[in-house]
# Entry
Amino acid sequence: QVQLKESGPGLVQPSQTLSLTCTVSGFSLTTYGVSWVRQPPGKGLEWIGAMWISGDTDSISALKSRLTISRDTSKSQVLLRMNSLQAEDTAMYFCARHGRGSGFAYWGQGTLVTVSS
Amino acid sequence: EIVLTQSPTTIAASPGEKVTITCRASSSVSYMYWYQQKSGASPKLWIYDTSKLAPGVPNRFSGSGSGTSYSLTVTTMETEDAATYYCQQWSSTPPTFGAGTELEL
# Structure
């Protein structure tokens, strides 16, 4: 069955770089896109970027200079790298599967990232 | 980007009561998606393509709308429906979410 699982460090110091991995199973990264969505504690959902089946990526304007999304199809992984982290980047980070211009049908359980010294 | 405005922010309902959540888009969208999220859990796709129920979603839920105005309705509120509901569009990138509506019992 379709599964997505996020993994990452949990705690990141301010100004440092965050690296998260989304490992998927039950589908191919060349068949479905995978997005990253974050949710600050007690707040709403924010889409931050996507990896398309073509290997192209998209991200929100506010994070374009800090965010890199890549993939390793052999490992069925989508990678997120965000630099210059600040306290406002503290959030639960989810990866989610989607089609083109559609909804997010499958979600990982999320990984909490806390930016603190 | 398209801004989605949900109302109300919070709504309290009694068992058996009918509930409607609205989502207004700043520009016309083709479809709306709705998610249910309970505390400590990942969001679940609840309604897709405006009016189609995701597998396992009770048929007391329905979705409707077009253009810039969409809604999610629960015909008879049940205890298990207490959650936060988010609308989402991807008619244009970036996909955006509403701020959420907390449905309380």
The radius of gyration of chain B is 13 Å.
